[in-house]
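[Meeting: bench + compute handoff]

Bench side (C.D.) handed over the final construct sequence. Compute side (W.E.) agreed to return the predicted structure before the next meeting so the bench team could plan truncations. Sequence as handed over:
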Amino acid sequence: MTSFEIHKVGGRIGAEITGLDLAGPLDDATVGALNDALLAHKALFFRGQELDDQGQVRFAGRFGALTTAHPTVPSLVGNPNVLPVDGEEGRANRWHTDVTFVRTPPKASTLRSLVVPPYGGNTLIANAQSAYQDLPEALREFADRLWAEHTNDYDYAEGKPLDEAAAERRRVFTARRYRTAHPVVRVHPETGERGLFIGGFADRIVGLPGDASRDLLRTLQAYVTRPENVVRWRWAVGDVVLFDNRATQHYAPDDYDELPRRLHRVTVAGDVPVAVSGEASYLIEGDEAAHYTS
């Protein structure tokens, strides 16, 4: 096994990995050790990597079959697995877990920095499993029984008027509409740990009226984003981040003015979330997104 070192970045989430060149071949033992580190720390950070798109695809593919770039948004030209994340094309300025509106959200996501602003533009990642442990016992037991509907057809401008470019982005994002019911508490398929599975695509709690649903989601979400559950990564060109999409949320604050910021994302296909009861997520609207997930 290729040796590497793990340096914790935060007490509850995040570790920087040193001593690995991700552009080179990684043997199975090294990949297994990295996966163990991912399960333990939820987010892994690699500084100063010299990867191109093919190298990022190859690295992400060591952790499982890959998704295509996105269910509705076009991929990088010539590379169906790579999603450009460009600040000039829109900013995901809210907490979310990637693509939870489909029945099989990704297992993990990789981000690679190409252009970073001189200030701002960090990525925040939150541990949704420690958030679950923070809940009072009565609230945990209640959450264990809840389901939430996740959809890509949501008001991500939060009532603000959209300019022409933003309206076009929304049209593309909702070109295929999805609505899926997921357990609010997801059992991790590899560790058995429980974690809150909500975030920006969670639209409503099944069986609750609108106001009560929104209030409960806000209450649960506040535990996820407690400062002790969050790590902040300040990007440098060439950094790579790998995070467990089954156990985290992330957020890229829009705090870098009109400066350019460009990352590329490649995601590893996941499985169907399972509740504490053993029940699996189910579709309400849309298809199985076979064009997207493995």
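W.E. noted at the follow-up: The chain has a mean pLDDT of 94. C.D. will use this when planning the next construct.
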